[in-house]
Amino acid sequence: MQARLSLAGLTLAMLSSAASGAEPCTCKHVTAPPLSRLGAENARPQFEPEVNDLKEFSSFRGVRLDMQESDAKRALERLGYALVSLRTTETAREICRGGFSVGTLRFDANRRVSKIELNPAYFGVGSTDLRVFADDVFKRFAVRKVPVSDDVCFGDITCFRGASSTEQFLILRIADDVQLHISRRPRHQVLGSEK
């Protein structure tokens, strides 16, 4: 019961921070050259290039949990993205594609990625079928689906939740906004850490 309440609290915190639009978009100030437009017909995620350097966390087109901010910035720049400081916090950076936000990286006190928040455009998706997107992401990153209780996702919020061996995933849609949240699994839940 305690674990369920804790999980519900975590999910609600993720939902409320996503729904509140806590940080204003800073991408409109980026003066990077425009990238080619995404076709609305592109509904399947583009996962390449992946960096398989045998780290304990999944690579999301070169970005992964626990990497240094400078390494994340270089990985994003290779894809044509910019990592931009938010005006409201020093612990997060917005991922920009031209003048549009495609995600956010959150950092711990040591400037290592502690949470990744991405929208489908980060993966080159122009038109999102939520179930197809969730299925593609879960298959690609070997994520086991975890049931979502009705008291967490209701009304116009649709959720898909899952876990890999070291990460927890939450894919949600609030109205028309689709987001993928990746964070570290709590130590006591990491697969293979049970004795």
Describe this structure as you would to a colleague.
With 195 residues, this protein is α+β, with helices and mostly antiparallel strands. Helix content is 21%, strand content 26%. It has three helices and eight strands. The chain has helices spanning 2-20, 69-78, 130-140, and strands spanning 82-85, 92-97, 100-107, 113-118, 144-146, 157-163, 167-174, 177-184. The chain has an eight-stranded antiparallel beta sheet with strand order 1-2-3-4-8-7-6-5, with helices on both faces. A hairpin with a 2-residue loop joins strand 2 and strand 3 (100-107). The longest helix has 19 residues, at 2-20. The two termini are 22 Å apart. Residues 1-23 and 31-40 have low confidence and may be disordered.
In terms of structural class, how would the helical and strand content be classed?
alpha+beta
- Tell me the span between the first and last alpha carbons: 22 Å
What's the shape? globular
* Proportion in β-strands: 25-35%
Radius of gyration: 16 Å
In total, the number of strands is 8
Order of helices and strands: HHEEEEHEEEE
User: Order of strands side by side in the largest beta sheet?
Assistant: 1-2-3-4-8-7-6-5
Query: How much is the average pLDDT?
Result: 75
Ranges with pLDDT <50 over ≥5 residues?
Answer: 1-23, 31-40
